Amino acid sequence: VFALIVFSCLVGEGYTNLPSSSELFCIFNHNEDACRYGIGIGVLAFLACIFFFMVDIYFPQISNTTDRKYLVLADLCFSGLWTFLWFVGFCFLTNQWSWTQAKDVHIGADSARAAITFSFFSIFSWVSEAAVGP
User: Which residues belong to any copy of the MARVEL domain (predicted)?
Assistant: First the structure.
């Protein structure tokens, strides 16, 4: 859910333009990489959640213990990696937002703050997934 919120905030109002121009730019200090990073990890996290949800549904039908072990290890490693990537994303978005000038933000400030906030919340949700596991 957090990944969808970050993704939708950045896609919906993460790009803006000046009143005198039709060229879009990222609201985070005009840094396109900040918006791309947030959108990228949001989409990939959502797809990974769907995949691991499907694995959890079919997990009781998997009789091979080796396959089960590899699936659990993959879930654990992915959750650890994604915890780190959300932490990097939170730091990156926060840093770029702190350098953003107020005159450049006409619309989308609330969406930018929401993307930063839910990036922070995502860190804890992925840590809990890595700690608890399947």
Answer: 1-134
